[in-house]
Amino acid sequence: MATVSYRSVLRKTYRYLAASLLLMSLALSAQSARAAEVIPSMGMTRTPENGDDTRLSYGLAVRSNIVPMVTAEIGVAYRKDELFDGALESTQWPVTASLWLHPMPMMYVGGGAGYYNTTLHYPKTPLLASATSQEFGMHLGGGLTVPMIPGVASLDLNGRYVYMGDQKTDLPPNNFKADYWTTSLGVAFHF
């Protein structure tokens, strides 16, 4: 009668456990590894100059993994705002680049920089012409990604603070704080 040693059973158990963990991690990484995701979104923005007044914004971003736990994002957005009781309209097309760190699979934090094409229009003052400027800005933020259809689509909730400093205007007080908060909800389509 053959006797089975305790150590040989333990070694076989460790091997099966290691093989199972390896297969599970490969399956999970294959599911989470994707070439890119396209994220159309709609959001709300609020500038410090307008108090509690929020405006709609629209965006489109492409996000891709560059190393484990880090994704890169390129995005474009559209937002329109009214300042000084409607005396000034600001229309903005930001093009941004971001790096997001994923400390947990569903959560990300990070920041980036952008090129902000801004047109200032004075609807109540016909003597002043519209002016367009290009400014550099930075943003910090984060978000949550909630899977809807695994491997196909997920909800993406993003919030960020955009720092642009002061912007000059032809109306008194001749400058205003161009910073703003934005929160957006989008659908990330995985490819």
Mean pLDDT: 82
What ranges have pLDDT less than 50 throughout 5 or more consecutive residues? 25-32
Strand portion = over 45%
Q: Span between N and C termini?
A: 58 Å
Give the strand line-up of the largest sheet.
1-2-3-4-5-6-7-10
**With helices defined by DSSP (H or I, 4 residues minimum), what is the helix count?**
1
**Shape descriptor:** elongated
Please state the CA-atom Rg, rounded to the nearest Å. Answer: 24 Å
Count of β-strands = 10
Would you list the SSEs in sequence order as H and E? HEEEEEEEEEE
Helix content: 10-25%
Oligomer: single chain
How would you describe this protein?
- It contains one helix and ten strands, in the order H-E-E-E-E-E-E-E-E-E-E.
- It is mainly β and 191 residues long.
- The strands form two sheets. Strands 1-2-3-4-5-6-7-10 form an eight-stranded antiparallel beta barrel. It has a two-stranded antiparallel sheet with strand order 8-9.
- A hairpin with a 2-residue loop joins strand 4 and strand 5 (107-121).
- The chain is elongated.
- The protein starts with 5 loop residues before the first helix and ends with a strand.
Topology at a glance:
Layout: H1 6-32, E1 37-46, E2 55-67, E3 70-83, E4 88-104, E5 107-121, E6 131-149, E7 153-163, E8 166-168, E9 175-177, E10 180-190
Antiparallel strand pairs: 1-2, 1-10, 2-3, 3-4, 4-5, 5-6, 6-7, 7-10, 8-9
Key structural traits:
single chain; 191 residues; mainly beta; eight-stranded antiparallel β-barrel; two-stranded antiparallel ribbon; 10 strands; 61% strand
